[in-house]
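Dear Dr. H.,

I hope your travels went smoothly. While you were away I took the liberty of generating a structure for the chain from your last submission, since the lab meeting agenda had it listed for discussion. I wanted you to have the full record in hand beforehand rather than looking at slides cold. The sequence, exactly as received, is reproduced here:
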Amino acid sequence: MPEVFLRAIASLAPLAVIAGVIVVIVALVRRRGEGAEEPGIGTVRRLYTYGLSFAGLVAAAIGLVLLVKVILDRLFGPRAISGGDTALALGLALTIVGTPIWLLFWSMAQRAVRQFAAEVRATSRQVYLYLVLAVSGITAAIGAITLLRWVFGAESFSGTPVALVVVWGGVWAFHWMVEERERHPAELEATVRRVYVYVLALLGLILLAMGVGALLGSMLGAAYWAIFRAQELVAGGSRLWNEATQGALAMGLVGGASWWWQWHRVAAGDVESGLRHVYLYLFAILGGAAMVVVSLSVLLFDVLQWSLGSPQSTSALAHFDGVPGVVAAVAVGAGLWGYHWAVVRQETRVAQRGLAAARRVYSYLVSAVGLVTLGVGLVTAFAVALGLLSPAHPPQIVGPDWWRNPLVLAITLLVVGVPVWGLYWREVQRLAAQGGREERAALSRRVFIFLIFGISVLLTLVNLSIVLFRLFDAVLGGAVPSDLLWQVRWSVAILLTAGAVSVYYWLVLQEDRKAMAVLEEAAAERAPEPAAARTPEARALKLVTAVAAEGDLPLLRRLETRLGYTFRVWQRFDSQGLAPPLSDDYLAETERRILEAGSPQVLLLVDTDGIRVLPYRGA
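The corresponding predicted structure, in token form, is as follows:
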């Protein structure tokens, strides 16, 4: 089992290459020609230099891995190793060819860096560095897991893991020192670096979760069999320190070390990153919530199947032998969910986006998990009902009790999905009713509603087409009419569920549209005419950054309403509120000073004297 996980993780390595290529394309488009904007050796020459440098480095590293493997196998492994001479010959060839190529082109790149300072921030160099770091880090991690499995006694000695750790670990260490020495807080470099950091952090988190889950599952499984005195039914069931726990511990240690380094050291303080939000919300929080919901569904299904369904075994001990693994998955998923939500709550107190926005995204993500669970449960329930109503179905294939386990599955998913979706959807609907236009126009709400509505409409149309095709086929004599309902039961079930969901969220969209129209009309009647509308020469928008305490945020909202656009807010924590009560005349004067500032960038400092307006220009 651990080997399967390792191969799955290794298969993700090309994603780093794809991500690097995407970053290169996007960066080149955004910069509109790297060589034209900054001095240096030119884009084409950079691509040539770093491309051949990467090829030479990979060839040299593979050759060194083969050489170290052969040496270690002959010193510490079995006396006779099949293919040892071939591996030695290939290792020598790759090392002899690849090493000079890498040294030549890397020295050319370093000479260009010494000649032109802008070369350090070149797109090609940044992609090369972080691509090498990603590939070498993933490869060394795979070797470290296998090496630890040998240390723990799970498998026999092989020189390959040691070679992978030594060679690729050395490649990673060398390029990391180069990256640390040359790091520059440029936007492009930060983007490329963040791709590397969060991809590696995510892979480390996956390894850590799998390792901890497998280790906890093995421990709970051993306790399960020990409690019910059935060690004789499972070979090695009473041994806690077995191959499964050894592999899980190795995976958890390597994954935990990789995740800790990337998350707590490299990515520390990067609270404004969009990729960090994708990592937190889309993978960590949503993944943890989905793991908890799925695991609880499996656990409840096992219980209901034993009570109401058709279990595959008549022994309760054998039927529930998967419970320890499910409990371990619940614990791991809850840990991922709870830890990363706590991180979000902590970071939103210092980031520009507030806790309300974070809670909004979080609620919609969990609502989506509950809605999907609820939807699958409804589809299964409808399919079972239609199957029972069908005048004919093949009992020789499905059996007389075919409906029991699907019905148990439907009940399970509905029991889990209804409260999850209901609680969180009720919460976001309450916020939308109380929060006004800001809540109803929030990006997370619009994305959630339109995505659910679009998917449900697509499912409705597709399954409606299938049902009509089956119906016309039966009418025209191409199928047996008595089997029609049995054949279309799943399509009709999806059609009913998706149709109901699409209708409901269409009504939600209409409700939001009407409520926003009423709120905008009321705001237009109450709001004074902004100075920007009165003075055509001052219509240009300003990039306003406000430094204020939490208690002064309503004051800033009043000023935003007068100006007609929003500010970027940096929250201060030395006081809950500093500004004295300010009149509309004072705000009008502040508005005038902002519009007449001699720079498109304005800094607002809210303190005990009121609001200070400071025009500035970024470096």
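Two observations you may find useful: The CA atoms of residues 454 and 517 lie 23 Å apart. Residues 531-616 form one domain.

With kind regards,
E. W.
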